[in-house]
Amino acid sequence: LKMSWFWLYLPLHLLTATCLCHSIKAPTTSSQQSFKTNLFHFYHSLILADGKETTVHLLKDIPKRYYFVLEEGRVLAPFSITVTPCDVPIEWSILVYKSPPGKAAPGDHDTQEVSKSPKASSLVSTIFSYKGNSVETYMGMSSHSALYLLEFLSTERDTHITVYLTTDTTSGHLYPELPTDPRIDVVGIGHTTVTLAWKHSPSVLQHREGIQYCLLVNEKHNYKSLCAAETAIRSSGMKLPPTLALSLSPYLLEPQQVMILSNSELSIINKVSSGEVRQVCMGTKNTYTVPNLSPSTQYYFDVFIVNLLTNASAAYTGTFARTLEEPEPKVTELQDGKVIHVVLDGKKQKFYSLQYHARHKKIHFTFQLCRGQIRIHITRNGKTVASENLSGLRYFSLKGKLLDTYSVQLRSTEESNSSVKVQASPHFHKPLFPLLPESLKIKSFSKLRTCRSVTIAWLGTQEESKYCVYSKRIAEDQIWRELQSADRCSGPESRHKSEKVLCKYFYDLNPQRAVTTETIKGLEAGTLYLFDVYLFGPSGIPVRYHSKVVKTRKKC
Predict the structure, then answer these.
(1) Would you give the DSSP letter of residue 310?
(2) In the chain, which segments carry CATH 2.60.40.10?
(3) Could you tell me the pTM of the whole model?
(4) What Gene Ontology cellular-component terms does the record carry (predicted)?
């Protein structure tokens, strides 16, 4: 747009139009007023930039106008205007102001005149109008002797939109292209997963580096544009990064957001009042399986093709799907005093149900978490009596009536395998596990470390029990795996004989003094060691203390 030429051209053009209006012999009063009003709109409008996406903020019931003209010297020129509502439906239209008869440029026949009058009213015509919240694009041919006015109006509430005008339709597109069939196909539905597929965007095939697909998952409805989705999430009280593509910066996350990065895919989960809103960017893959969904729940899926260089995006036609109902878990009967070892597959079988028919009023439930993360839920005759996440060893002493029915539901809270040992018994039954100390942590004394020895300590109890210490050398890159993958229910029988250090008995009637220490000698300098302590009770079932990693001094 040649600005210096434009400002000279505009007053002259308007003056010519104004004079022409007065030269018409018998215009109606309404025609005069309408034309003068339209000319007045130009003086209170903004210039719409060519080749740049413009954000327009609209106040309720107050129209906003933008105008543009083409570069001087071009007789016919194609142009396109794309308007993206970012919230509520809006009304928008394009009006064209043409030169008087005799000076009309080719292409004027493309406009649709508002009035049949060949006189003053023919100078102004509406060539396009729309009302709704879809992304709409108008493409047309323009004459250099015409000016165009865009008028936008929101009648519901304050909102914002984006407007993109371009007169260069040959050098590329700001927005990524959609395929001829922009639908998202649901190709698989499970209890907690939905698999989606969509046709490739031509932009991905042409510019693979700067383009990526992003998926939005929510429980409310589909969104027709990326800015509409972001506006809806912000209105729920959450601050979002400017676009899905920019969500790759972890420091932009809010406290209500959780970021998961795996297999080169970025997932961001937003905790909002209407449920979770998930954003997943998966590069140029056009299939994706959405994991960790809730059973028997309807979800809405939107795929956006995002230009990482311009942050412009285009939306596929959204779809929805309902996950399958969770199958009724198999119920296992608990017998008095019998220990059941339950293993849960975090991907296939996340639930396990146990049932116990009480033959006594007082009942004890014992849970020993062996691996992973598990949540337990206990009901008596259908009413909840306990519900919590397991950590180590846990006892529940419950009092009810004879023949009460207890149901125990175990649920894995992570995708990896989890396991737990469970026992139900009357209150007078021989306890499965030994009396436990207040803490199962092992302490090491830094000042007592030498190049060849380490001193550790742990708490005991008021009853005499057997404690066995085991140790083994580990490399630094093995620490995390050893601590995370350890089976906390396994006993010394799973250890190599060479790892056994000693066994000892001790107790103290005063819990404050039930502490024992042990110095392990014959170690190598500057070496990492993993220490474990096993506590044995009357039943012979061991309880493993939390493993402790200690490094001997390198120099003494």
Answers:
(1) T
(2) 173-238+276-327, 442-551
(3) 0.49
(4) extracellular region
